[in-house]
Design brief:
The protein is α+β, with helices and mostly antiparallel strands and about 325 residues long. The protein has helices spanning about 1-5, 10-30, 70-75, 160-165, 255-260, 310-315; strands spanning about 35-40, 45, 50-55, 60-65, 80-85, 90-100, 110, 115-135, 145, 150, 155-160, 170-175, 185-190, 200-205, 210-215, 215, 220-230, 240-245, 250-255, 265-270, 280-285, 290, 295-305.
């Protein structure tokens, strides 16, 4: 048996070598290796809850090596680049990258790309900001709008500390064009800085608020003379010789029917025990259904006549 194996062994060994060589040549011709490049946008994972990305790594151009069929699989299924930010602190850091190929070509396609990428992280913060309402303040003639009422009145702003700090106000944009009565609807809100520019890199919660806007008849106005309603008696022998309000007239507003019944604005003045001329500050109290257009405080000057006995004593002293 051994003699048969040893017979013409040189030719047998040569045949085996030629067979292996032909297999290698055939395999190379069947699946020639190729090189291709493609962009990949890295995704950052493992960020601490109190941190956020300030500057993300840019898209990277990576080089792939494999057969034409394998590279086509990668192009169709995609290549992922995962940046591990576990343990990263505030500021700039170079972090490791893992390139993840489709499962069908793993171990058969090689990837040439940077092993580390730079990521900049910043502290994440939040604050409550009051909601303001922008609307078309052009009511029909004879009418006016009440102050708009947003619900809720505040919105939580979350994001990078530098972005959150820029937010000066939250604006609800209400389209009330053509409205003839109460308007109540949900509207989106936007964050703005002190220049009324939109701050987009923040998260708002909630993103919409309900705004109520009431249209009412504009109250009538009327200018009324101030009239003192005197009560009490001055000191014995003292007489009130006159008084003067400054200003002497005030503008009030209210329902037209109510105002038509008013000819003057009565001001209660207690002069009990008044012994000499004096000046007082008096807060006006308009009747029900009527309000002051401007200030409510006026000045009242009270003038008194000296007792006759004082005049007689003065003559005797001369």
């Amino acid at each position: 048996m051994m003699s048969l194996l040893r017979r013409n062994w040189e030719y047998k060994l040569l045949s085996l070598a030629l067979s292996v060589l032909l297999y290698i040549i055939a395999s190379t011709q069947r699946t020639p290796s190729r090189t291709s490049s493609m962009p990949v946008l890295p995704e950052v994972t493992g960020i601490a809850p109190d941190l956020a990305i300030k500057v993300a790594p840019p898209s990277e151009q990576v080089t792939l090596t494999g057969s034409a069929d394998e590279l086509e699989i990668v192009r169709k299924s995609g290549l992922r680049a995962s940046v591990n930010a576990t343990g990263a602190k505030v500021g700039k850091s170079f972090l490791p990258v893992t390139y993840i190929l489709p499962e069908a070509v793993r171990g058969r396609v090689s990837v040439e790309a940077p092993p580390m990428l730079q990521v900049e992280l910043e502290a994440r913060t939040q604050k409550m900001v009051a909601v303001g309402v922008l609307f078309e303040n052009q009511p029909p003639p004879g009418f006016e709008y009440d102050a708009p009422e947003p619900e809720p009145t505040q919105v939580m702003v979350t994001g990078l500390a530098s972005d959150v700090e820029r937010v000066e106000r939250i604006v609800a944009l209400l389209n009330n064009s053509g409205s003839t009565g109460l308007v109540s609807r949900e509207v989106p809100v936007v964050a703005q800085d002190d220049q009324q520019q939109v701050v987009s890199n923040v998260t708002l919660q909630p993103t919409r608020v309900r705004v109520s806007l009431k249209l009412r008849q504009r109250p009538a106005t009327k200018t009324l003379v101030l009239s003192a309603n005197l009560t009490g008696q001055p000191s014995p022998g003292v007489a009130l010789s006159g008084y003067e309000f400054t200003p002497s007239m005030m503008v009030v507003q209210g329902d037209p029917v109510t105002l038509s019944k008013l000819t003057a604005l009565s001001v209660p003045v207690d002069i009990a025990g008044l012994a000499q001329s004096e000046t007082r500050k008096i807060a006006l109290l308009p009747p029900p259904g009527v309000s002051m257009v401007a200030g409510k405080v006026v000045q009242l000057s009270l003038r008194v006549a000296l007792p006759k006995v004082n005049k007689q004593m003065k003559k005797e002293g001369q």
